[in-house]
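Discussion board: Methods & Data

I've been asked by a reviewer to show the raw model output for two of the constructs in my manuscript, not just the figures. I'm not sure how much to include, so I'm pasting the format here to get opinions. Each protein appears as its amino acid sequence followed by a line of discrete structure tokens. Is this the kind of thing reviewers expect to see in a supplement, or should I convert it first? Here is construct A:
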Amino acid sequence: MAKKIDLKEIVQDAFGASIQQVSGYDAAFLYAESATSPMHVATLNIVEGSLKYQDFKEIIASKLHLIPKFRQRLLSVPMNLDYPYWVDDPNFDIDLHLNRMKLPDPANWRTLRYLTSKLFSAPLDLRRPLWSVHFIEGLDEIAQVPKGSVAIFTKVHHVMIDGSSGVGIMSVLYDKDKDGKEKKRKKPKPFNPEPLPDELSLLLKSGYGFLKNPFKIPKTVAETAYSFIKSQATRKLSIQKEFSSTKFPVPITIFNGNISAKRTWGTALLSFDRVNALRKTVGGSFNDIVLAICSGAIRRYLLEREKLPVHPVVANVPISIRSEGNSTEMNNQIANMMIQIATHIEDPLERLEYIQEQTMLGKSRHNTLGAKTLSKMADAVPFGVANLIAGLYSKYNIKDLHRPPFNVTITNVPGPSNVLYLNGHKVVSIFGLTPVVDGFGLIIAAFSYNGQLSITTTSDSRTMPDADLFSRYIRESANELEELVQKLKKESSSTKSSKKQDKSRSTLMFTTLRKYLKANPKQVKAHKGVYYIEVGLGDKTEGWEIDLSKATAVIKKKKNLKPKLLVEIEDESLYALYKGKLLLDELKIQGRIKLTGSETNKTKFLNFITAFLER
């Protein structure tokens, strides 16, 4: 006898809040998936000592409830009429996601890289929760890694994670102290999955979403036009008017062809402090230095193959637009800016200067606005149509009919600055692998952890079969840049020693700020606190303390070793901010201002400085 349809129950399922729809931006990673392009990201963590597999499994099981999407799967709407939904997987079994294996002999770095390349090439099962972990034992012949250590290779689909949220998940799974082994491990929380909604419920829910907002597409188009006009006006009123936005030719390189299914990767381990020292010497952002190092390696790689284009290679540089304190929310919150990375310039210092000029002139301001609007536009496009277009684009090589929008992706994700542990075992190194697709066969991911900066290159066997050689070029590019910067620093120091050092240009801002607070005592009360600004002056720094803890503000030069809020900024950037040539948001996006302290103090300082700048 046929089951009676309960319409009331179906309607309740359709309009319940227990299932969450994939956003248009996240869905892009689904319809980009193909036989040669599985769209997952991965991390390879080296853990010293003989960590036991059973202990590792119990740790993962005890923390799964903190990452709900690890027990959810995607459920498609019938006929792909709308974006899929995240639903609880009633068949979830942790053993289907954990894999134990031993590294084959010889148990060295080359073998580990070959094995993980093979694992990374295999797609995740889209019918299950989109993650897997390989627990690889027996790392016996890797330099600076104790014999018997393990490697943990984790794959997560890009539909539910970006770089920043990946760091947030890492902080959930790993410990910040080595006493984890002594602590009593919590038992796994029971998993009571919600029943799967039926097809009619999904159709009703999708239909209701359209009826609720039938003007979604025209509204998004209008917002796009508004953002474009606003960004044009902003650029005309700022220093950007001297330069065009992104109207430059993008060359076709060997990185922009069809890719193969087999992944290749290599990594270069650099000292974070040494790279950061370069930033302090030449000014600009940490990301500028990373781009310059990668640019040197790309230029050499193409030059040796007689494939170096006349026009500079263009890099897509993702920027996180995730709000602070929101790193564990599992979705993609990124914008992109296009940067010419000066591969047409031979001298490394001139290349760096060219890159700094581009990032300093604020392309991020326009492109971040555009990225947010494009995210809304993606939500307005029916999933089935987008899927069809993506399939046709790949099948008929439409990319060959036009120039690529960029040549290579270079991403920089700040990781944990302190040591992480797993059941008392130290995490030695962390490397990030990223997906490549047809037309974009090279992506470089920089990741900082515990004094190390790993710059990991992911490609495929057709585009870059010798990724390990390219990683060597990255190391040598970093060494070459460091040598030239140190030489420049010595020359600059000898010149300065013969004459008196000029005072910082930003001193004028602190003088004006002192007068402003004297005339506006309400601002002192409204932004009560003590803020310390460390101004970079080439090879030295100058400290300013802004004390708003009493009725009368006190602003003076002072050395404060343990401030509650530390603001680090170069003199040139602070002066440009004061003069209105750069925006505060611009400096934050470009990494030219760094705030260290509690979220409350950061917010209070930003509100305070914004009020002053808008006076």
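Construct B, same format:
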Amino acid sequence: MVDQQGALTGSSGEAVDSRTLLERLQRSEQVLEQLCAAGVPGVTEDAHAALRQEVSALRQMRAELKMLLDRGALIADTSHKLLNLPPEEMESGIRGALALLGQHVKAQRCYVGLLSDDRSRLLDAYEWCAPGTEPLGLEAFRGRSVEAFAWTLGEFQAGRTVTVTDPSMLPPEATAEHRLFAARRIRAYVNTPLSLGGRLVGWMGFDAVGAPRSWTPEELNLLGVTGSALVTALERKRRDALLLQEKEQEQRARSLGIIAAGLAHEINNPLAYTTGNLEYLKQRMPCAHTPEGLAHECHQVLDEALEGAIRIRRIVSDMGAFSLKDSDEVEAVDLEAVINSTLRMAANQLRHRAQVVRDYEPGMPRVRGSRTKLGQVLLNLVLNAVYAIPEGHFSEHRISLRVRHSAESVVLTLSDTGHGIPPEVLPRIFDPFFTTRRGSGGMGMGLAICRDIVTALGGKIAVRSAPGEGTTVEVHLVPAEQAVPELATRALAPSSSGKRVLVVDDEPRVLDMLKRLLRGHELVTASNGREALERLRADTSFDVILCDLMMPELTGVDVYQAVRERWPGLHERIVFITGGAFTPETQRFLQQVGNRVLTKPFEPAHLRELVTSAAARLPH
């Protein structure tokens, strides 16, 4: 199979997909508003009221999705800048990141403090202040004792975020905090602890000056997610130069993995009810008295909005795969799927540089490896090819990926039409810390890591290049001994309706959407794990329990363990819902229990089939 396409065809960046979806949602809203207009012939008052309600819901959905996408873009942009700063630009970069965050949440100050190893002194500090706001003076405390702020540090040591909306409510032991707030006119603040490897290393915070305010859950979450990238950046500044180079790739991958998982989870929740509600609207349209031309337009708009949502879902799925923790487990990997996923992830870097040519030999066997590690190798090689090609000459350059196989090996050949590698440099390209891109963020670890991964899997990697003639990389991989066995298909009972379903999710709009999509079944909802257990104490006669994995207080894992202990057998009826933010512990748990998993956003038909089949295959 040979497939040639430009970077703009078949692959699109997150920004384009996000903008497309929001535009389509706005168009849907406008079309429905036309139907709501007074004087549309044949439309009853009840139909008008229902349409007005749908317009309001669609408008709110669009606003919430825009807010989440904007926040995700801010986190990604801020983290990318921090994680790629050379040491000499670290201080200015951190202040720039704090300015972005402070302006985004409309705070008057944004700051970060880094503690010494024994947590007795303030080792480092940075702050940003809005124009006209007096500095907190945190940077002047560098090297000084933090003993006076014992109460705040105690809260941090316990892992608690300090959220204050009225400084007068602070406890008596927080005397130092009282004095500081009075002197700096602080009316509200939030400080979150920053940890590394379970150890408190500092804190990050926002101040409201002159006027009181509250802090939203979204703003608290923004502090927490951005804090991990800040910790990585600040810790990197403290290390010895050689140790820094040695560990930087690992820290970058870990931080980006956390960010990717967090963004996937944050986007998948609104995406779940966005796609579900769009499907619902599509099924309900047109109304009985909708003019034929307008009905066709409504369906077209909804189809296009759904297409945009599906493309975003694919991008988020790739982010989730990237964020999975590396494992030493070797499995049979579909190399073609890994290549396609990698190219989607690198779409933004490719779009202005080169056309992508893919040539896969039919009947390709799976290879010995792990999807995550082979994805890391491919992403490194693709980005190296990208950086060898100048911007602005898209039509003149190509990046080709060719896969061939024999009984002994599967060979991936990646070629580019870039500037090539000088002969004096070529023998050193696999040396750790050797790079020709030191000034532009290169660390010299990419190809060294690629070689280590490939050789550990029993393969080999070779590079051919010459100045002005581009570069060709050949990766030889070992075919898997046998294909991944297909799971035996369970015999399903005939479809039926009227199942009793308990749905547990902390996102109200997901619960509302599930009620619409599972009409015909009896749904009982719970907004958290504790409420779910209370429902079960009163009544355990549920055919299926749909339970979100990642919830505050009691997680889906906690609910499962409590159900298994108190009502043996009922735990087999749990189907887990997830937005994709798996911790390593959660991954191990899902592998051990074997319960079915429903990933957000889910397709309505798949959801209904899962509820029916899950209920049918379990004994009552």
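Answer (T.O., handling editor elsewhere):
This is acceptable in a supplement if you add a one-line summary per construct. For B, something like: The mean pLDDT is 77.
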